[in-house]
Predict the 3D structure of the following.
Amino acid sequence: MKFSILVAIVPEELEQPAIDAAKELGAGGITLMGARGISNSQKKNFFLALLTMAVKASC
């Protein structure tokens, strides 16, 4: 059996039209996930914190 995944990032107000389009094109299932973004400086700080925790855990 072969599976494929399509990831679409759409604003909340376009969720239903995106779902309808996927169904029309034969999507066998749909999973919706809510998300929010962070700025580049926050990403950098978050990654640095994770890296620091990983190094401390390995010592």
The two ends are 44 Å apart (CA to CA). The chain has a mean pLDDT of 78. The chain has one domain: 12-58.
